[in-house]
Amino acid sequence: MQENFSWARLWGLFIKEFTQFRRDRSTFAMIISLPIVQLLLFGYAINTNPRHLPAALVNMDRGQFSRTLIHGLQNTEYFNFKFFPASEQAAEKEMMTHQVLFSLHIPPNFSRQLVRGEHPAALLEVDGTDPVSVAYAVAASNGLMNSVFQYDLNGIVKQAPTTAPAQLIVHTRYNPAGITQYNIVPGLLGTILTMTFVMVAAMALTREKERGTLETLLATPLRPLEVIMGKATPFVIVGYLQIFIILLIARWFFNVPLVGSSVLLLVLSLPFILANLAVGITVSTLARSQLEASQLSIFFFLPSMLLSGFAFPFRGMPIWAQWLANALPLTHFINIVRGIMLKGVTFTDTWVDVWPMLVFMGVMLAIALKRYRRTLD
Prior knowledge:
Elements: H1 7-23, H2 25-45, E1 53-59, H3 64-75, E2 79-83, H4 88-96, E3 102-106, H5 110-115, E4 121-127, H6 131-141, E5 167-173, H7 180-211, H8 224-252, H9 262-286, H10 290-307, H11 319-326, H12 329-343, H13 347-376
Parallel strand pairs: 1-2, 1-3, 4-5
Antiparallel strand pairs: 3-4
Helix pairs in contact: 2-10, 7-8, 7-9, 7-10, 7-12, 8-9, 9-10, 9-12, 9-13, 12-13
């Protein structure tokens, strides 16, 4: 005979589950801290309308009206002229290494031609690898020439009301059509590799710990470094298989160009793979279960994805968030992938992103080796 529903039994089960949940302090801490981390990242670090973007200035005029043009662009609050290369080649180098997003070129005799009514032209080059970052700045520069010289030209020269005294030619480079896939697909390469090697590797090693197969290695003469290398090699092979698949899909389905060297891209992918794999191994030494390993992995994967510039403009984040993002390998790897695929950069151009990734890889491999040695002990 089926018994009646009992509120007393339900209350007892509720107390039991709540007590068990309270004793699992690590899970409780993650449930509380994860929303806080997400709120802080989305609330403070994410900004889809970045301002004060770094720009290079090549001013060959040095006249009054060239200074007026520079101040007019700065007054839009989107341009921050902080680099002053001596030539157009040096300015191109700054853009190739993603130090600047804009490069303003003012030709000689710009001010003299403007006074004579000859309608001179200045060139504003734009890094189009991330269209979202520069869209508002380009929109703010459109039509600037119609009003920026109105006070300086008063009493000097008379222009037709509907004619701008000068031109500002905007030239978007690397992705002139502003195709979103050119920005998203290369970024997905680093994001997928991060998710694979941090989350999957951590859960796979933790699963061996739960099943007890990891303890069998204690009876072998294998050293911790040998064990890590043996377990890491299959993941590295899988990682390169993922790279080939993503590059093929990017080329044949989304028509994303590969301007640079594919060999260079494969070579520079190795330190990124090893760095994330070391993070996964370290997480596996901290986690007691696969669920805990996946939760710990989110604490690394989530900031990496949000702060790397993959989903949101990197330059729109505050300085503290940019410093944090520069400490993560995904930020630099996305710059490398976009630079090779869209700009055709060489190894020298990528070094600004290679060395932080190598440092992170070395630190994480040392931590993983030390933590794994401690686990074996």
